Structure prediction request, 255 residues.
Amino acid sequence: MKLKDKVAIITGAGSGQGAASARLFASEGAKVVIVEWNEENGKKVEEEISQAGQEALFIKTDISKEEDVVAVVQQVMDKYGGIDILFNNASVGFSERNKYKMAAIQDTPLEDWNNIIGINLNGAYLLCRHILPIMIKQNSGNIINNSSMNGLVGVTGADAYTAAKGGIVSLTRVMAVDNGKHNIRVNCICPGAIDTPMIAEVLEDRNISENFNGNPLGRVGKPEEIATAALFLASDDSSFITGLIMPVDGGWGAL
Ligand SMILES: NC(=O)c1ccc[n+]([C@@H]2O[C@H](COP(=O)([O-])OP(=O)(O)OC[C@H]3O[C@@H](n4cnc5c(N)ncnc54)[C@H](O)[C@@H]3O)[C@@H](O)[C@H]2O)c1
Prediction:
């Protein structure tokens, strides 16, 4: 029970890494708030966790809308009276490529650029903007941001996504520097290829199977392998770690 009675907000917890983290955090005793714009998926994860006798609350939210984020914070404060953990995990990526162009910069219309940055970077900013004052007042808090290896190196073909992920890395560092004095830790995970709906089509297109030769471990990661990294950062197991930019990538960054 590494997170006993901790209130943990996880964005994008209706799918993939966010859902795996919600399940793991709840099994470790956290009260998990599922912040997700896909109602069906958000409710499903809430139900699963409740049926396991653990605590979860789904709140339908678009993290790029400030009024939605303000409403989440209000609802969580009214119900639980505090916020211990924020996992900024939600993003749009290749799974939304019919909606937003995942392309090189010269092929990215401004509208798509703004929408992708609006969710993948501004969404985390909005959650932090409205939750940090609460954590500062508590004199405790733990923020984890989900970036990507795209935030650390140039990966072709999704420039707005990549720019947002670089922003998440820098935001993590400055927030860690500013908020250590308030007993708030801020860390960042940079996943490599993880088998979730976000890259399902890309894996299929490029004919990448489980025997993936793109990293030293020779396979694609599982969402649960990001959840365990998030749990490490969220728990006291990492009590002296802040400002860490942590690749969880099967060694891809070492190539
Ligand atoms: N899958 C990968 O290979 C990979 C690699 C590197 C980084 N990441 C990052 O990991 C994180 C989790 O992604 P995943 O792989 O689990 O993908 P996913 O598509 O399975 O999950 C993303 C979730 O975020 C939600 N979401 C998107 N926009 C939202 C919004 N505006 N408001 C609320 N919810 C919203 C989606 O509905 C979805 O449930 C993302 O930040 C992603 O960029 C993924």
